[in-house]
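MOLECULE: protein
FOLLOWS: sequence and fold
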Amino acid sequence: MLVQRLHTDPTGEAGSSAYQRLKPGPGKAAQEVRADQRTRICRAMVQLVGEVGYSNVTMRSLTRLAGVSAETFYAQFDGKEECLIDAYTSAAARLRERLQSARVETLDRPMQAERTVTRLVRDLAADPHAARLMLVEAHAGGPAALRQIRDSESKLEQALRATLDRRGDRVSSAIPRWLAAGIMHVVRARTLSGETVLSGTAGAMVRWGRSCVEGRAFSPSAHPVTVRDPASTPQPLRISAQSSDRDVVLVTVLRLARSGGYWRLSTRQIREAAGLSAARFKREFRSVDECYLAALRLLGRSYFERPPSANVDWPSRLHAGVSLLCDRVAADPDLARLLFVDVLTPGVPGLRTREELIAEQTDRCRDWIASASRPPHLALAASTAGLWGLICRELEAGRAFCIPETAPTFSFFLLTSAIGAEAAASVLEGER
């Protein structure tokens, strides 16, 4: 398992106990002792987080399981959050190391994709505790943890690309981003639901991953799109005289967060801007986080509205829906950033909200696809998460203005899992 591999001793022989201390005796360097203590503490954090969740980990339970005193713990870490981040960083680094070892130069790219996806899914499944910490509970560690997660996700994408690149023939950066976001979403959803990760997951993900790289010859530059005037793109922030108190609060929260960010929100600020008394506000929401995440759900559903049902085939309709989404993101990047990036700011509840929205969009996309052509649900869920991940990266890089031009690439990936790369390219060729 990941954690066992990560914390075996330098000779490669694990002790009889998961938290066996160094044998006493002369000659033990202070640095060696501290490293052993730190390893045992991080290992205990992984186990406890996997069993009871980060919010339920206490200093007493952590130090007791690790076999250290509170004094020793604070000599290693400033607090529980720093320990969580350290445990996450170590586990993520080991996952990347294992992934990089999956590269076989003599394999063609589709076969390499199968091997790479298999390794990633199986390594995540091998240790449910480490997977839960990496995919879910690390998001509870505050802003520092979120920064580390973003950095580690970027490094994972780089590791994925390194396995797929061949000498003189590099894959598009969109492919590893799509793969990483899709696989992590599917495994995270299984982790959150308590299902066994490998139960029907590995095979479906391997086939999905292969389809992503088989279509790599598609050139988005050959499929230009007409970028609409942002002013003509419908926006969701509207309040009418008939709006309920709840709707007024939700739209107000989005407007405030769009200009000032999540951390500046307060109950008093929200209700005063919405023109509501404290009593009326409390009838709808109990906390800032509750109304903030409810507002993001409203925003997400408005972004993913069904495209106009003109007399066109379903692949063209799906592409129209993706294009409309991209136009809306580009029309107001600050608002879109709330949904695609800042949704994680409240921690694990924000993560759950994002995963729920991705699941809802997966169901919408499935409805847009003719029943005879619908891909396996896991493949479509992975593709929807891939779409989300690519938009997120563009927003983080300040490239929202490029997103409408990338819509054909997004549509291509979505369509490939349903009808294959050649047919997907033909659909987009006809849309020019």
Remarks:
- The chain has three domains: 2-83, 95-214, 222-424.
- DSSP finds 20 helices and no strands in the chain.
- Residues 30-52 form the longest helix (23 residues).
